[in-house]
Amino acid sequence: MFVQGPVPGFRLLLVIVLSAILIVADVRFDQVTPVRSAIGTGLAPVHWLGNAPSEFGDWVASLFTTREDLQEENEALQARLLILERRALKYAALASENNELRKLMNSSEVLDDRVIVGEIVAVSPDPFSHEVVINKGSRDGVVVGQAILDANGLMGQVQQASSFTSRVLLVSDSSHAVPVEVVRNGLRAILLGNGDTSALELVHVPDTADIREGDLLVSSGLGGRFPKGYPVAEVGQITKEPGEPFVKIHATPMAELNRSRLVLVVFSPEQDTTGDAGSSPEGPNAGSSAQDGVR
């Protein structure tokens, strides 16, 4: 003879009474919190095991990341770094004259230009011509005369633009000249290339001019070629010869003319207005006057 257990109705009543007791104990006396905490701690391994297959799959997938994906990510980060370094360069150059400019112009000067990132793909084999080729052309909005920068300063200007590439004349070329000014006091002069990538010449500076070794030279904006305020060179050796009205000044270019791979093509506000410029990773923020050097 079998012993009959509690009837289903009694078991349901027992569960309801027990639930009510636990609810009252939790709400009124806060007696169930330690139990709930202990249960949560005990279930932690269960949650971990439940997520383990997904995490293991992600880990395995990360082991098989292709070289192309890593290279693409690295190039994107380098391009972003280059843009940020370019911004920092211009902000530093303009900060020293910001207050004076605001007083003279009675307006807030725009501190940014629109740019696109390019890559140097070839170098001219002619030892008497300092030129490089970049992988941006007229289809990207590049036109003759646009300024080219690297992460440290002004490199040169576009000499010729085709559909897919452009030829860039470096500031060190003997036919290149850039109107510059001294950041410290605003003294203006002309910086010439002399065929040496490590040295430039500052000409037509009177022997009475206030210029010192270590002064930073930035593009002045005169001539309407290069944008204003970008670092170009740093004053090096200054030679004063008796009886000569001008001093001989050698300057060191800020841009790494022989080592830079990524460059920035700077667009003028006029190009943005007429729609000649291509798309830019920095957006359509226009800057100071277009480009200020002369070849």
Walkthrough of the structure:
With 295 residues, the chain is an alpha+beta fold. It has one domain: Rod shape-determining protein MreC, domain 1 (Thrombin, subunit H, Beta Barrel). Helices cover 33% and strands 24% of the residues. It is built from five helices and twelve strands. The strands form two sheets. It has a six-stranded antiparallel beta barrel with strand order 1-2-5-4-3-12. A six-stranded antiparallel barrel has the order 6-7-8-11-10-9. Strand 6 and strand 7 form a beta hairpin. The longest helix is centred in the first third of the chain and has 31 residues. It starts with 7 loop residues before the first helix and ends in a 21-residue tail after the last helix.
CATH topology: Thrombin, subunit H
The profile of the biggest β sheet is:
6 strands, antiparallel, barrel
The SSE order reads HHHHEEEEEEEEEEEEH
Structural class computed from helices and strand pairing: alpha+beta
Which percent range describes the beta-strand content?
15-25%
State the helix count. 5
Mean model confidence by pLDDT: 77
Q: Give the % helix.
A: 25-40%
Main β-sheet, spatial strand arrangement: 1-2-5-4-3-12
- Give the low-confidence spans: 103-111, 276-295
Radius of gyration: 34 Å
Q: Which architecture name does CATH use?
A: Beta Barrel
Number of strands: 12
Morphology = elongated
> How many discrete domains?
1
N- and C-termini, Cα separation: 114 Å
What is the name of the CATH class?
Answer: Mainly Beta
* CATH homologous group name: Rod shape-determining protein MreC, domain 1
